[in-house]
Amino acid sequence: MKxxxxxxxxxxxxxxxxxxxxxxxxxxxxxxxxRIISLIEEGNNIWxxxxxxxxxxxxxxxxxTTFFNKINSGxxxxxxxxxxxxxxxxxxxxxxxxxxxxxxxxxxxxxxxxSGIPFNEVCxxxxxxxxxxxVVNYDRLAxxxxDKWKDYxxxxxxxxxxxxxxxxxxxxxxxxxxxxxLAxxxxEKWKFxxxxxSGITYNWVMxxxxxxxxxxxxxxxxxxxxxxxxxxxxxxxxxSGxxxxxxxxxxxxxxxDVxxxxxxxxxFSFDGTHWKAYKYTSYPKSDIYREYLTVCSVAIGNxxxxxxxxxxxLAxxxxIQWKFxxxxxSGxxxxxxxxxxxxxxDVxxVGGExLAxxxxANxxxxxxTNSGxxxxxxxxxxxxNxxxxxxASRYTGITSFDGTxxxxxxxxxSWLPDxxxxxxxxxxxxxxxxxTYNxLAxxxxANxxxxxxTNSGxxxxRxxxxxxxxxxxxxxxTYxxLAxxxxxNxxxxxxxNSGTKLYSIxxxxxxxDSTIWVGSGYRxxxxxxxNxxxxxxxxxxxxxYNNILSVAIDRKxxxxxxTESxxxxxxxxNxxIxxxxxxxxxxxxxxxIAFDKYDxxxxxxGGGLxxxxxxxxxxxxxxxxxxxxxxxxxxxxxxxxxxxKLPTVVKISSxxxxxxxxxxxxxxxxxxxxxxxxxSNLPGGxxxxxILTDKGLVYGKFIKx
Length: 705
Fold this sequence. Notes:
By secondary structure, the protein is mostly beta strands.
């Protein structure tokens, strides 16, 4: 029996035995980690920094991946911009919210509130021969010798987007700026190189590497430049083997002094004489080939293997074969989560760059290559009473999916007034209400009706949001105001007749008292049918400078507001803000919010999906159904190993470890009697053991410290 089939049978067999359990973990992050922006090798491991996907450790021998994010580690942010390793093996990790050191067990964060570092967002790191760490921000340079921080003023007003730093054998720091060019700093004096005084062809410097001769190799967005201290030389698509465009994002140099260049046109090598372009002989079929062409990071392994980080994922190349690795901790196809809907089975449907479903254990992705979706840009979703998903696209209309069949509705095969669809809602009768860039449409499964400013009470044809109240009245948010429609009569609310500015209605939610809550620009507005109330920076400081993107109301009546600067809750009296600095929110831009049957908040951000429950997230965990199954797990809690003891007469086929959210972490073939499992690489938390024996399934729990 195949392992995948066996795992599925175990999971199916386990389902009837599941019970609900509540743990103390309030936040969970689900992210996509395909966009690789930093790489470094350490022994048998590759450390991988991703954009919004956290830090990943890959064991090159076993292929095992360990995921670190702001929830399960000391990382203050899920975007890892740079990684360096000192002589003691400590990892120094640059993030968008601080510098982090990790010695393998302890994490330490350095930020402006707890150390002398002059900035929180770290763009690049380099370590000199003395072990001093040099970090750069957009317009600053700082050093840390392990005891003291020092801030260095850059005497140029052109350096405002520093992206890279490298240190030569003389200890001189070479700094690249995206707009200012190249700078060198010997500890006392600065020198600046740009298009007006050097051989640099463009002032946009994205990467720097230094070869064994001391020559600097500088990646710009108009080609590669070398500088040996006196001579400059430019390589671009017109005089080299590089393919267009000329965006040079990353450079690495191997032990033979061959330069490996990552660009938006692919991977190239240059030995000083000959150029060579490398194409993937294969790549994951579920991904788009062009994503792999943008090479953001390159690292050279001790055995000469090239590790290539792209916008499509991680690959290794040994000179002959390519190998691809999963660097995502979830099945999300993208971190830009525009919409969320939850069906009656509590399955979460997530829209962004494609559509994904998540049942708490398994992910399934739908896109243009494996489904009937006409477009991967999913902007809004709704689920009707039959469980059919209605998916709104930004450019290609709406699509229905009943679990088997896909059907597309657009301007060429229906009365949809425009293919640019911003919102969709379903009323109690199952009629779909579709907001487009050119009017509102209703569809009852057979007949279409179109509403515009010329034939209805719509204040504007740009329909951005729709909600249906308990009476069946439709509330429609447009660019120029709010409208209600009870099926016969329209009522329009605009700036002129409401007593408040009503425009750009991006979201609508309706509470149990039928009060309408709308997001309008930087203001939250409520309307009880008679009175309007506005919440803005003057009377609710937590909404200051927060453009509202989404509004939702939970079972207790608490309003949850997604903004460009975080998530805000309002219980009618108290305001509370959650952002990436003070909570488990992975990213501050909150596009969408939905609630499951446990009132857990599912939050779609520009940096992944988050689950949040202030009372602890309710999950599925297993328990023994029969005490006489005589399983023993020890020690418990444990640090590095656990021992599992069953009767010797029981034949064990496999042991599976599942985390508290239902994801399978490990499947191991087992033996008789006492079994030893290594768990040192697991993050701390509660885990479930599912053991397949010749007598059936037995279960256990353990806690990893």
